[in-house]
Design goal:
With 218 residues, the protein is mostly beta strands. The protein is 9% helix and 30% strand. It contains two helices and twelve strands; from the N terminus they run E-E-H-H-E-E-E-E-E-E-E-E-E-E. The protein starts with 45 loop residues before the first strand and ends in a 6-residue tail after the last strand. The model is unreliable at 1-40 (pLDDT under 50).
Length: 218
């Protein structure tokens, strides 16, 4: 699947993403519960990299970023193309597992640092074979947006590069992304909720997943 470039729009995503009201309208992510085509995240500067200890990361700069509905399937395809070998996946992005042979173009940063003019950050979790996606908040600090396993065969919500589908009720692009503090207070859980049937999938910082069923159509 080709990467989304400048000037393209994800026309089917009028109702795709719900984010906390603290998100910036100018970073491509919606500020309301029903975003419009004009503020869907795509075609923005972002990093793809590796999460390190204590909030550090190493990442490759990319000029034209994609929304997770597109980028996550592409990362999963790279993962499968390399027989689920982490070193092979990282080599696609000029990265190495231990960082010793990274490309000189690799940026080294910390999640607590200002995002500057970056609009998205995909970080691969080496320990759990997962991906965390981060976006800037109003203060231009990185904020967790969603988490995804590289092996998405058992997802409650399937991402196919153009839509997100609930496997419980088959609703398409009827989802809300949010975060919540973990039960232990050790970080943030990433939550995806179907606004049609109310079912939800919560992914913890350790990439364990919990599912709840909803009351039905809302």
């Amino acid at each position: 699947m080709p990467r989304i470039g400048p000037g393209n729009r994800l026309n089917s995503h009028d109702r795709l993403i719900t984010t906390p009201s603290t998100e910036r309208p100018d970073m491509g992510l919606p500020v309301a519960s029903r975003p419009t085509k004009e503020n869907t995240f795509m075609g923005s500067r972002h990093y793809v990299g590796v999460l390190g200890p204590h909030g550090t990361y190493r990442a490759l700069y990319r000029q034209w970023g994609n929304h997770p509905v597109i980028e996550i399937p592409l990362l999963r395809a790279d993962w499968q193309d390399h027989d689920r070998d982490m070193a092979g996946l990282l080599a696609v992005y000029d990265l190495t597992v231990d960082g010793r042979a990274d490309s000189p173009e690799i940026y080294h940063g910390h999640l607590d640092e200002p995002t500057d003019d970056m609009e998205g950050l995909y970080l691969i979790d080496l320990d759990h074979a997962g991906i965390g996606f981060y976006v800037p908040d109003r203060a231009r600090n990185w904020r967790l947006y969603s988490r995804h396993l590289l092996d998405g065969s058992d997802d409650l919500f399937t991402l196919d590069g153009s839509t997100i589908r609930c496997t419980t009720c088959a609703a398409v692009d009827e989802v809300r992304f949010s975060t919540a503090h973990t039960a232990t207070g050790s970080g943030l859980d990433a939550v995806v909720t179907c606004t049609h049937c109310g079912c939800a999938e919560t992914t913890t910082p350790a990439f364990t997943r919990h599912r709840t069923t909803g009351p039905g159509k809302r």
